[in-house]
Design a protein that fits this description.
about 475 residues; mainly alpha; 21 helices; about 55% helix; globular
């Protein structure tokens, strides 16, 4: 195998074949397609304000619409510095490595003698990269361990995959085969249902969907509907101020539970503006909207905006995928798909979501536990926020290097005014503090219920990389 050499022509104008790009990915490069441009974004992964996982889920895919929807015009211009070439014609997506994609290394000699052209005619993304499939088998820890001991495969394929997808190659436990077979049948039934309900996956139909989406986006932009109505935010700020002032007044009167009710509603309403800021939907300026979001989320709410961005961007890209979407990964308490019974590996959390004895008990009664557990949801958001900030999961360099430090300052500020100023100094008794904490946190449950119900009710079937 020879190393991959860039064409001698101008780098941006170099026409790269599908096999060439596949070889780059097989060598561990992070390559995405945007507006026909081939971008190698390895250097940007650790600097991306929206997190590295969002980019990793687009490797080998046409990311044009995702990039345009989630980035400013300035950010899109900056991406041109990562261009290594271009493509011609319609791009057929690979399955990204993080999702189990398998890629062949590039052999220049075979390409010269015409082998590559033959492969271009005969190969689809299913043969070049394992087709996206929800039929992953359960994780087998023994085979995974033995595979690590054996080392890398010496075949032509360069495998870059998650444990959950690789495990499907090595499951031999006959005791589990009947149950696994039943789950596969159930999975196929869900896929068939989606295929019957939604538009076909053929290129022509999918291209029409993409075209109509872009036309709608252009129409919305032309009519000025993306422009922010700041008067509406003035009304929102007035409402927030009223709720916070009522909480302080009732706290002064000693009505601790009622005071907690108002500050909980205050937090509940704040997150909608934080969501807008996180999507750059207020001023459309990255820095200004980030500061607004951090003030709301961290300084006033005790939650991390950076964690939310990292989580939410992945959710948008791989919505309702049991292995990849953190917004539906709530094991061992909830399982909205039978596939969670297979101890899937979460590519977001980098861990196995084990279907153990505890999970079997809680999930059996999840329809009873759903509302009680969601009343405690805010406590889990604290945990996820602290994990993100303390472990430094966000970018440490680049445009967003300072976000973590501002968020840490926000956390100190929040726990000073809320933890020390209200809970410790303003409420004299243990039971008063407990009532204030529980009421203020439990009253935010409607937000968690709204989000989970809107997602839990939707399909988790994976129709593959060709679905627009």
């Amino acid at each position: 195998m020879s190393s991959i050499r860039q064409p001698s022509v101008n780098r941006e104008e170099a026409l790269l074949s599908r096999r060439h790009i596949e070889g780059l990915i097989a060598d561990g490069k992070s390559v995405i397609i945007v507006d026909g441009k081939v971008l190698k974004v390895d250097a940007w992964l650790k600097y991306h304000p929206g997190g590295d996982k969002a980019i990793m889920h687009m490797v080998g895919r046409d990311a044009t619409d995702e990039v345009n929807a989630l980035h400013s015009a300035e950010a899109r211009r900056r991406m041109d510095s990562y261009q290594i070439g271009r493509i011609e014609g319609r791009w057929s997506n690979f399955l990204p490595p993080i999702q189990g994609g398998r890629f062949r290394r590039y052999d220049e000699y075979q390409d010269i003698v015409g082998h590559d052209k033959e492969m271009e005619r005969n190969d689809s993304s299913e043969s070049s990269s394992v087709q996206s499939s929800p039929l992953f088998d359960p994780v087998d820890h023994r085979t995974a361990a033995s595979r690590r001991r054996r080392g890398s495969d010496t075949s032509e394929l360069a495998c870059i995959s998650s444990v959950s997808s690789l495990s499907s190659l090595d499951v031999h436990d006959e005791d589990h085969q009947p149950r696994i077979s039943h789950l596969k049948v159930r999975t196929q039934q869900e896929i068939d249902l989606d295929l019957a309900k939604y538009p076909p996956l053929d290129p022509k139909t999918q291209d029409e969907i993409v075209l109509k989406y872009r036309q709608l986006n252009d129409r919305i932009r032309a009519e000025g509907l993306y422009e922010c109505n700041y008067l509406s935010y003035l009304i929102e700020l007035s409402r927030y101020a009223f709720l916070f002032a009522m909480s302080l007044l009732l706290l002064r009167w000693g009505w601790y539970a009622t005071s907690g009710l108002f500050i909980g509603i205050f937090w509940h309403q704040l997150v909608f503006t934080a969501h807008d800021a996180g999507h750059m939907g207020i001023t459309h300026d990255f820095t200004i909207d980030t500061v607004i979001g951090i003030i709301i989320a961290d300084f006033l709410g005790g939650l991390s905006l950076g964690w939310w961005k990292r989580n939410h961007n992945v959710h948008h890209i791989v919505t309702n995928s049991p292995e990849h979407d953190p917004d539906i990964e709530h094991m061992p308490f909830f399982a909205i798909s039978h596939r969670f019974f297979q101890s899937l590996r979460s590519t977001y959390y980098d861990r196995i979501m084990t279907y153990d004895l505890f999970a079997k008990v809680t999930i059996r009664y999840q329809h009873y536990l759903y509302y009680p557990i969601l009343t405690l949801g805010r406590f889990n958001l604290y945990r996820l926020s602290w994990e993100y900030l303390l472990l430094g999961l966000g970018p440490k360099k680049g445009l967003a290097w300072w976000h973590r430090y501002l968020e840490l300052a926000g956390q100190v500020f929040f726990w000073t005014w809320f933890g020390y100023g209200i809970l410790y100094k303003s409420i004299p008794t243990f039971w008063g503090r407990l009532a204030f904490i529980m009421v203020s946190h439990m009253i935010t449950a409607p937000l968690h219920i709204q989000i989970t119900l809107s997602h839990f009710a939707m399909s988790t079937a994976d129709l593959g990389v060709h679905e627009s």
